[in-house]
Amino acid sequence: MTSADVDTDLSKLVGEKTAKALKTHLDLYTAGDLLFYVPRRYDQRGEHTDMRTLEIGEEVTVLAQVLRTTTRPMRQRRGSMLEVVVGDGAGGQLVLTYFQQAWRERDLRPGRWGLFAGKVSDFRGRRQLNSPEYVLLDQGAADGEVAAEVEEFAGALIPVYPAAAAVPTWVIARCVRVVLDTITMPPDAMPSRIRAERKLLDLDTALREIHRPSSKEMLYIAKRRLAWDEAFAVQLTLVRRKREAAAWPARPRPRRDDGLLAGFDGTLPFTLTDGQLAVGEEIAADLAVAHPMHRLLQGEVGAGKTLVALRAMLQVVDAGGQAALLAPTEVLATQHHRGITRMLGPAGRADELDGDPNGTQVALVTGSQGAAARRKVLAKVADGSAGLVIGTHALLYEGVDFADLGLVVVDEQHRFGVEQRDALRAKAEQPPHVLVMTATPIPRTVAMTVYGDLEVSTLSQLPGGRSPIASHVVPVAEKPAFLERAWRRVVEEVQQGHQAYVVCPRIGDSATDDDTPPPDDAVEDERRPPVAVLDVAPLLAEGPLRGLRIGVLHGKLPADEKDAIMRAFSAGQLDVLVATTVIEVGVDVPNATAMVILDADRFGVSQLHQLRGRVGRGSAPGLCLLVTEAVAGTPARERLDAVASTLDGFRLAELDLEQRREGDVLGAAQSGRRSHLRLLSLLRDRELIGEARAEAEALLADDPDLSAHPLLADQIARLVDTDRAEFLQKG
């Protein structure tokens, strides 16, 4: 076979059929793609895969030992079913099921070790794999392709790749061996000075050791080299973008001592926290210079981010510009509009009889507005009389024109795609200042890596008067009576004059709900559907919450109906609001003291923390009950126990990162493209990321365009593709 390089199509190396499967199922096209497709983990012969960590619906490959086999006739149709019980060596077990394949019993004899690949399902309380692919590690008279596959696992450390049903890990390992045996390795792009100072392995050896490790020590060194490459590529990209953005022109918006902001501060009925004052000064200084601010404002739920943002918006209006606040939902946009208008008083009603003629106007732009109202609002935005503009995605549409857009504030920035944020910025003649906010605390390494081209401000101090929130897990599978007690607690809160939320993961739609039980011998691939608002609300009204005033809120309701329901709840005309996560951010009803989250294990850690922040916003203590069927010892239950144990959002953010397995640190969802970033861990590699940042800043200070390092520039292009680079630039 002729020599190949990293750009060689896989079909020339592993055959058309296998190459097609790799392209279709794993998005791997070239030898380089496969080289940087590193194993997810390494098993060791005789050691077990912890089966407690397997999640329902997850595609897995497990190293396990056959414990026993049973063949029995099926009840509802002719033929037999083979059940194979495999163990993890520590008491955990998994059932493998094969229909009409009794002959496999000859292979799967008790005592044999193998790799088994399939989708985890749950049937009658037992975890199982239905008809999994497998390779036995003590295959005796293996020949042909099987022999080649078994050869991959001759070493002590067994690589297990992220696989697909059509491309199991042993097929990937065989293809990697072919590539390693034929390819001319790419030149090492890392500057020799950095390699020497950081004691980094050369790239050729690192790639060979990552796939076929000769020892645990060499595997560790290889991982460290490749993780460094990823961190360094990301940081070089971010630092370059930050340097370029700092050179863009922007109109300065300096603070005035006699404007709207000064008047607003003078009417505040409370004292700003030290954190709000400090962050306010940082933002004010950014707005006053001739380059666009690009700042991330993060803070705990209820830390007062909206107030900080409003003060920045008023500074821009004082300087003759307009400020736009982009909110992810109509519920939140409407609430922002109502709250800001109320806080400004006459200064926000310059067009009304009781308004301050020296003030400004606050405009609301949403997709559900009628044509006449929309024309009226857009005219005020276009002529500049509306200095503060609040809206949803509708702000991005053609026809929404600003007189002088000076500041863009993006609330809950993770809810918006890059293109949406960029579309709003494009409505300004010059790049506007940008402030993005999130109530999801971000660990330092995530901020440095994902938001590394932004300056970061943090609000960690809560305003005075906020009440504590008690959180408890309600384990209905183990203690069904606890759910009845949960509903009694809701009733007790209402009897004391308070209100409550009940949160469900799903709206409920008969077209998508299918509660038909599977036949006896069928395999249940998914858990039951999550509970739904439209199902739960009537059951509560007729059952444990009978007599209470119950409202329903979800994203598919018409905008005017959503607004009416939130107004009624805010005014105390409803006792209980049964809702989806539409209430997750921004909803502020101080009288709401209790929240019951049903199927809480269906939510992420940060989302649960956000939801919980809707209660305890007044003087009365808050209560959050996390209802789940997850049993003790499972990852889902451990996640809920962690949420219940702390109100520290930053600790929970790190836990969320661990639980979500990090994935692509640059946000694959935003760019929709594959990435070679596979080894970098935002938790494990904190120190390495910091070092990479320092090296990137030093290198670019001497060589801003990397003209002296063309190989490194090419490597960055491979590791951080064009779409991702644009994502970082626009972010």
UniProtKB/TrEMBL annotation:
Q: Which GO terms are recorded in the biological process aspect for this UniProt protein? A: DNA repair
Q: Name one Pfam family in it.
A: Helicase_C
Q: Which Gene3D superfamilies match?
A: Nucleic acid-binding proteins (2.40.50.140), P-loop containing nucleotide triphosphate hydrolases (3.40.50.300)
Q: Which InterPro entries match?
A: DEAD/DEAH_box_helicase_dom (IPR011545), Helicase_ATP-bd (IPR014001), Helicase_C-like (IPR001650), NA-bd_OB-fold (IPR012340), P-loop_NTPase (IPR027417), RecG/Mfd (IPR047112), RecG_dom3_C (IPR045562), RecG_wedge (IPR033454)
Tell whether DNA repair is among the UniProt keywords: yes
Superkingdom of the organism of origin: Bacteria
From the Swiss-Prot or TrEMBL record, give the protein name: Probable DNA 3'-5' helicase RecG
- Source organism per entry reads Catellatospora citrea
